[in-house]
Amino acid sequence: MALKGILGFEHGIVQAPLGPDISGPELVAAVANAGGIGLLRCPDWECPDYVREMIRKTKTLTDKPFGMGVVLAFPHELNVKTILEEKVAVLQLYWGECSKELVDDAHSAGVKVVPQVGSVEEARKAVDVGVDAIIVQGHEAGGHVSGKDGLFSLLPRVVDLVGECDIPVIAAGGIVDARGYVAALSLGAQGVCLGTRFVATHESYAHPIYKRKLIEYEKTEYTDIFGRARWPGAPHRVLETPFFDDWRSLPSHENEVDQPVIGRSTIHGVEKEIRRFAGTVPNMTTTGDLESMAMYAGQSVGLIKEILPAGEVVKSLVEEAQLLILKKFNNVA
Amino acid sequence: MALKGILGFEHGIVQAPLGPDISGPELVAAVANAGGIGLLRCPDWECPDYVREMIRKTKTLTDKPFGMGVVLAFPHELNVKTILEEKVAVLQLYWGECSKELVDDAHSAGVKVVPQVGSVEEARKAVDVGVDAIIVQGHEAGGHVSGKDGLFSLLPRVVDLVGECDIPVIAAGGIVDARGYVAALSLGAQGVCLGTRFVATHESYAHPIYKRKLIEYEKTEYTDIFGRARWPGAPHRVLETPFFDDWRSLPSHENEVDQPVIGRSTIHGVEKEIRRFAGTVPNMTTTGDLESMAMYAGQSVGLIKEILPAGEVVKSLVEEAQLLILKKFNNVA
């Protein structure tokens, strides 16, 4: 049976931790209630009380297990300590080395550790420190993308590396529908992780204008023009909006620091000014010139045609994958 | 039945036309004899007599149908006329617009037209002029690559575009084994096109040192440093050999014209000097500093572990795809 769950969850469908606060309690609970793996996104600064509050709020919305994603490039020690105290089901990690000590601490707390990697080398390091699953992110993915290889190339190599270890490999990047899900299973994945598809849901905390652009636009670009000062050396994939097209050749010495303020947001409870070229996508609270803000999206955004309830995304993936398999592969023997 | 053939061939497995002369009569006949679609590579200059000779030589090695690939960026009118006169089964086209007139001429000669595209826009134009199938090339592919999107993103969008047209869509880029074949079928392809995997065969006309490097190296890069003067604006994917690593930042104003001669090859019957940074891979006749020559390869080269007979590549793809489908998807219902 190909469509079994992983890590104790009903389905092997992971909702990516969407920054800075797009995958909040409502989205995560909706995914969890549908049997998927919902991941809150931890703030990029130390705020353990707020982290605890996010987790507890999510627990009021679902009885199912869920997790939280942490970007290791930012301060996170106190936040991780709180995440482990609150015993979420999964600690997802990205953009930094996942240490043996961290894995051991998480396991002592009964929390599973799932790093996202962009290369075979990173996957090897993750296996060596005893992680519970690996998310393999292809270059197709939206948001911050560390690797250069597409899923067709990277995924089977990581699957071969993991071999008989009994560590599920989860495919991320460019997957939005059942075709991508079944393709990932064919390449050896046991689960799939979707980002852009879950931004475009009723429950995501993205601003309606950002959601609408995910439906309207078909093209993306891999760039480093957003958020250079705050997170240097972190290329990302964004929608080719008119703003991006106008500024795609931003000289390398320029960044968001000296740019004009173009809007305001409350992000994880903190009021912030948004400068032009900040790496911050518009959330539900954002005001100002939203059209000129970063709009992260994966290469498959052209396949997303409507804003759906998040639970329906999970349900459709499972049901349509079963139909696709029956239709395409039932008579091969 | 998913693993049916396309375009009248036994299997939907296409051997890419490998330049400049790597997919010669021996390789193409071996693929054809195994039931795949073998494609000769037409020279990049007008030489109709030589083209006729190549086709006729191939016909002495196989009774099965085969085709020829033409790069439209180079002079080709007389060559195409000859290809149609010789009535090969398939005319494959790349890197240029496939006109309605050309499609009509080919159809009048009983020749099927199969362009390779790198974007949805190109696919739309191809459908509009009445082609017989479309090869969709993902960014993962080796050699010259026109598009930026990976197969997970580009392939289903082209499949959706083609819709009910009854035009097979063939996936190219990063596919080397049955996992990639089944993944491509899952995303809606009816066939797959493999390049690097067929360079690494007994029958390919690649130099043994080039074949050996395909086994030894795992990493590739998308670049434009090779063959800039001869074919400007044509980025390509190559192995990350030590030569490439040393020179990856070649200034944009430099090209092969003023570089030293580093070797010699006979290419399609013509003796040529190979200058440093030429776009020419070493073939069986090449002498000189082969280590410093261009070595095209796709992102999945790390999955290629041995040089195989080309017929065995075709046979294994079919047999292992059937096994994979039975093992993974037999109990989904």
From TrEMBL, chains A, B:
The keyword DNA repair does not apply. This is Nitronate monooxygenase domain-containing protein. SUPFAM superfamilies: Inosine monophosphate dehydrogenase (IMPDH). It comes from the Eukaryota. Pfam families: NMO (PF03060). Keywords: Flavoprotein, FMN, Oxidoreductase. One of its GO terms (molecular function) is nitronate monooxygenase activity.
